[in-house]
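Incident log, structure service

09:12 report received: a user says their structure output differs between two submissions of the same chain.
09:20 pulled the input from the user's history:
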Amino acid sequence: MKATTIILALLFSASAFAQKHTPMPNGTVYGTKPDNAAMVTASNLETYMDKKASVSATIRGRVIKVTRPKGGWFEIDAGNGKVIAAHFRNFNITLPEDLKGKYVIAEGTASKQFIADDMQHFAGDTVTGKKSHTKKTNKNQRVSFEVKGLLVER
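09:34 re-ran on a clean worker, output below:
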């Protein structure tokens, strides 16, 4: 009698631990819900920024990978091999790894990467300037994005 109750208990507990992974539903919001009234695609973000150092924007793009789930660090495809490094302003956000490959709408602040050359901290990106041969910069990752809110689209 004891053996059968132990076997039954093990069978029921094994089925509880072997739950299937459910896919992330569309419309999941992390942080605050983004306002998508004036949305820009991720591939057009640099042209939207023009010569501004930072700009508030709502972008739509595909997540390449989640680099650090805790704190919400991830990368968005910006087209032509370019990448937008994104992270949440609020560190309490934890993103699932399943976000990879999903299209998202993110609201926040986009900033261009600067190179502090000759103590000119706000001089701008000198990749094409006179000292570009001495600086090792990643031309594919020149924009970072601080996210206030994220909406999983599809």
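09:41 both user submissions now match this output. Likely a transient worker issue. Closing.
09:42 reviewer note: The beta strands are 29-31, 39-41, 54-68, 73-77, 83-88, 103-112, 143-152. DSSP finds two helices and seven strands in the chain.
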